[in-house]
Specification:
The protein is α+β, with helices and mostly antiparallel strands. It is 32% helix and 17% strand. Strands 11, 12, 13, 14, 15, 16, 17 and 18 form an eight-stranded mixed beta sheet that branches. A four-stranded mixed beta sheet has the order 1-10-9-8, covered by helices on one side. Strands 4-5-7-6 form a four-stranded antiparallel beta sheet, covered by helices on one side.
């Protein structure tokens, strides 16, 4: 009886999905709809204000940067988006000239007075300036500020000093539109990889000044871009619906997959020349708990599962292979190493765990040594990860597979000895260690309420119990923790950071002092590290730069502002009607490159109805 009810519910679900698709479609042709879930809620859609990966995925499909990535090329390769070509770069890596394609238009909006609004060079000038405007508190400012674009920081400091609105109309030497479709970026020091900052639409996507100024306080909820999709419906932290942007300029599927990748070669052959986007509607639900998210996929309510929850993975990807019962249903597996780090950071300005004196360094390193990385990988992540040795992950410049460090070491004896040596001992006989001055030592670790986070909390509690350190957990929703973290209010927090570009500077930037409150959530600020970071950033790729990156990684291990734990392995699952998906490490705006085969979906509905 139970199985009959489940099958009936499945048939009804699929029938309603097909009916809804037909209702949304142009007359005579059912719409193609992709449904899936984020495990964490979005924070908004404004490129000048967002930093989390989920919001950047959404924004990356609404807005367009001048550049993008080839969807299938591996290693990652830049290609033009709204630009006519890759930028012209001066021999000294200080001047970058971007020329835009004419005839690209924003999605319609009342702010345009009923007229079509063309994308022009001034839109990128304005959009980049917004990151410098103190009003928006941009968490992405470091992407441009570190490059030292001439004149922009001076405008920012003037606004801060005078407590006046940011002056968008005063020209800056380093960011100018020289004609309708051309803008030039000039920097104070060589920046060989600056073009990468203009390939993330969730950061450098173009917004229209009229839209922002019409309703400044609604910038996070009212995105208007030139990208393939527009926001059609939004129930905060519950559902986002995106529809094809009818003003999207003509883009055809084009990709350059590796010759030794037959899957990508077949995708390119099948889709080459197709008009983008191929899917009419995207529905993204927020499903925080792992089990309901998996069930929504298995019940065919969702078409694609963004990262099979690792704690649930053994029955579905045993030994890294798709399980036979899923393969029989035509389900596809995309298994790739993530270009990311999962870590727990220490608030370097926090009076308990922060600071640069030997005793504070010893406390952080002892806590790091007490934590069992392999236990997290085997127990919480079910083998879907590899121990990290430093902050730079595989598939990025600066990664060295031979590099070994204390990051992955688990040694409770050494941790206890470090604490004893620096005076963190039990002074009142209650069984818990105290500070060297005799005051109680208490670690406050921030985390989330979902089941996966609770498993990690237990591992941290076990680690702290083993060395006699009291720990309490501050539980909150992820967006709330993010806001508190950016303000420097958390003592410790465990999260992951996905790389946004294939260069080591992206991850090393998590320790660069001027990035405090942006990517540098630990608020680490060590002059010796900052100097190394700046030197390597100005160098072209080569052995000399690699040596500096290695030294920077060693400093991160020695001072331990971040306990770098794993580089994750990701398992995406797709139903057989999802066509063309490959996970790209850096491209957030990927929806337009995927298709839905309605015939295959219809056959699945028919088969589900069979007794």
């Amino acid at each position: 009886m139970t199985s009959l009810l489940l099958k009936t519910a499945l048939i009804l679900s699929l029938t309603l999905a097909v009916a809804a698709s037909a209702a949304e479609a142009p007359k005579g042709s059912p719409a193609k709809v992709l449904r899936y879930a984020f495990p964490i809620a979005e924070s908004g859609f404004d490129p000048a204000q967002i930093s989390d990966v989920y919001s950047r995925i959404a924004a990356g499909n609404i807005f367009e940067a001048p550049l993008t990535y080839d969807f299938l090329a591996r290693p990652a390769k830049l290609r033009p988006a709204t630009a006519e070509s890759l930028p012209e770069v001066s021999a000294d890596f200080k001047t970058f000239t971007f020329r835009l394609k004419p005839g690209i238009h924003f999605a319609d909006d009342p702010a345009f007075g009923g007229k079509k609004r063309e994308l022009v060079a001034e839109d990128y000038v304005y959009s980049i300036k917004r990151h410098y405007d103190p009003r928006w508190k941009s968490p992405n400012l470091y992407n441009f500020e570190n490059a030292k674009i001439l004149g922009l920081n001076e405008l920012r400091q003037k606004a801060i000093r005078t407590n006046q609105p940011f002056d968008y109309d005063t020209p800056a030497e380093g960011l100018r539109a020289i004609d309708r479709y051309t803008f030039v970026v000039k920097v104070a020091e060589p920046s060989p990889r600056l073009a990468l900052a203009f390939a993330d639409a969730g950061v450098s996507g173009a917004v229209a000044r009229e839209v922002i100024e019409a309703a400044p306080d609604k910038a996070m909820e009212h995105p208007v871009g030139t990208g393939p999709y527009r926001l059609a419906q939004w129930r905060r932290s519950s559902l986002m619906v995106f529809e094809r942007n009818p003003n999207y300029h003509e883009v055809r599927y084009e990709a350059d997959p590796p010759a030794d990748d037959p899957v990508s070669q077949a995708i390119a052959a099948k889709l080459r020349g197709r008009l983008l986007p191929m899917i009419d509607r995207i529905e993204v639900h927020i499903v925080e708990e792992s089990q309901p998210r998996l069930l929504a996929f298995l019940n065919r309510e969702h078409d694609w599962l963004d990262r099979l929850p690792p704690e649930l993975s053994p029955p579905y990807v045993p030994n890294g292979e798709l399980a036979p019962h899923l393969r029989k249903k035509g389900i596809q597996l995309e298994r790739v190493p993530a270009v990311d780090v999962s870590y727990s950071y220490f608030g370097m300005e926090n009076p308990v765990v922060g600071g640069y004196t030997p005793d504070k360094v010893a406390l952080r390193r002892a806590i790091g040594l007490a934590y069992d990385v392999n236990a997290e990988i085997t127990q919480a992540r079910k083998g879907q990860g590899m121990p990290a040795q430093a902050i730079v992950p595989p598939q990025m410049s600066g990664y060295d597979p031979a590099f070994r460090s204390e990051m992955s070491e688990h040694d409770v004896g050494k941790a206890r000895a470090l604490l004893d040596l620096y005076g963190y001992i039990d002074r009142d006989g209650n069984g818990w260690r105290d500070h060297p001055d005799g005051s109680p030592l208490l670690i406050e670790y921030s985390s989330q309420p979902d089941q996966a986070s609770r498993q990690l909390q237990e591992l941290w509690r076990k680690a702290m119990d083993a060395i006699g350190v009291r720990v309490e957990f501050r539980i909150g929703k992820w967006p709330e923790q993010l806001k508190a973290s950016r303000s420097g209010k958390l003592m410790m927090w465990g999260v992951a950071w996905s790389a946004t570009q294939p260069d080591a500077s992206d991850l090393l930037g998590l320790m660069y002092g001027p990035n405090k409150g942006q990517s540098n959530h630990a608020r680490f600020d060590l002059p010796a590290f900052n100097q190394l970071y700046e030197r390597q950033a100005a160098m072209p790729d080569g052995p000399e730069r690699e040596a500096l990156i290695r030294e920077a990684k060693k400093i991160g291990v020695a001072y331990m502002p971040y306990k770098i734990i794993t580089h994750r392995l990701l398992n995406d699952l797709m139903h057989p009607w999802v066509v063309g998906y490959r996970r790209h490490a850096f491209l957030r705006g990927w929806w337009q490159y995927v298709d839905i085969d309605l015939d295959v979906r219809q056959r699945a509905l028919h088969e589900a109805a069979l007794p």
